[in-house]
Design goal:
It is built from three helices and five strands. The protein is of the alpha+beta class. It comes from Inquilinus limosus MP06.
Length: about 120
């Protein structure tokens, strides 16, 4: 659970291939440690590219409980698959963000444009 001023803002679940990161949970405190830093330092895994999707959804009971919201409250769900430079998947993440606390913004421009 990610907090802002002690308020639950996002509920995140990360799956890692156990064969690539043996003992990762036993040796690290991820309340303070960066997952990507541990993956680089201890396992030589470097996130190279990721594919992420975003969709609106209603939370399941576990997510609603973690975020302290009713099951009828919408959430923004981000799913991300991260690979190393060889294309091997090293992480899958599902993050649910409270719909009442987040908004998305995007800057769009033609492919041949340049930033000023």
């Amino acid at each position: 659970v990610r907090l802002a001023d002690a308020v639950p803002m996002a509920f995140e679940v990360t799956w890692l291939p156990e064969a690539l990161v043996p003992g990762i949970l036993d040796r690290n405190d991820f309340r303070t440690a960066s997952l990507y830093e541990v993956m680089r330092r201890d396992y030589g895994l470097v996130p190279w590219q990721a594919e992420q999707t975003v969709e609106a959804d209603l939370p399941d009971a576990v997510t609603a409980g973690a975020l302290d919201i009713p099951r009828s409250a919408p959430v923004l769900v981000f799913t991300r698959r991260t690979a190393d430079a060889d294309g091997h998947v090293i992480e899958f993440v599902r993050s649910a963000y409270r719909g009442d606390r987040y908004k998305m913004r995007a800057r769009l421009s033609p492919p041949d444009s340049t930033d000023p």
